[in-house]
Every structure is written in structure tokens, then in C-alpha cells.
Amino acid sequence: MEKMPIKYLQVKEDIEKRISDGEYRSGQRIPSERTLCTQFNMSRMTVRQAINELVKEGKLYREKGRGTFVSSPHFLQRNVKKFYRYIKRKRIYTAYTDSRILYCI
Questions:
Q1: Is the predicted pLDDT of residue 58 greater than 80, yes or no?
Q2: How many domains does the chain contain in total?
Q3: Would 2 be classed as within a structural domain?
Q4: Which contiguous run of DSSP H or E holds residue 19?
Q5: What are 45-55's pLDDT values in tens digits?
Q6: Are 56 and 8 in contact (CB under 8 A)?
Q7: Whole-angstrom Cα distance, residue 23 to residue 105?
Q8: What is the pLDDT averaged over residues 37-64?
Q9: What is the pLDDT, as a whole number, of residue 4?
Q10: What is the DSSP letter of 29?
């Protein structure tokens, strides 16, 4: 028996593919949650969960009242620099760092 993929992961992977294919460009606003619901024929909560995951990963960012946008490499780079400054300021020298860090608070 073949496992069914989790619905929000299908949406997430499709949005990631659209970003990598250049359909959604850096700094461009992606379609609204309602529009994506219609496109994917899925609930708003499912679409929202996929978008939240991509925001956590730093691939998208939200601007209140404006929408959700594709992050630029510079946006990701600023977050990594911000993380390193935080480590240095807090003197956390035992922290494991990796070039794959994309999200920090």
C-alpha cells in the first residue's frame, strides 16, 4: 500500500517549484491564500500551513496588509548575519552553526 503525501507538503513543494522555476521571482508577491486554495482545491488552513512552513524556512516573508512575498538571497543572507551577530553578542561559542541556517528569531 502506497502512502499518501501530506496535503500541505504537496502545496509547499509546488510553491517551492514555482520559485525555483522562476514563476515566482524574488520580491514578488505570491497569490493570496484564497487564490491558492482555488488553484490547489484545498482548504485555507492547508494552504496557510504550507505558507507558514516556507516563511519559517525563509523562502517567503509576510508584510502585514500587503501579502506574502518571495524572499531574496539578500534577505536570507541578512538573517544569517543577524544570527552570527547574536551568537557573538551573547558569547555563545559552543553553538553549532551551518551554512544551511535560514531562519532565526
A1: yes
A2: 2
A3: no
A4: helix 7-20
A5: 999 999 999 99
A6: no
A7: 29
A8: 92
A9: 47
A10: B
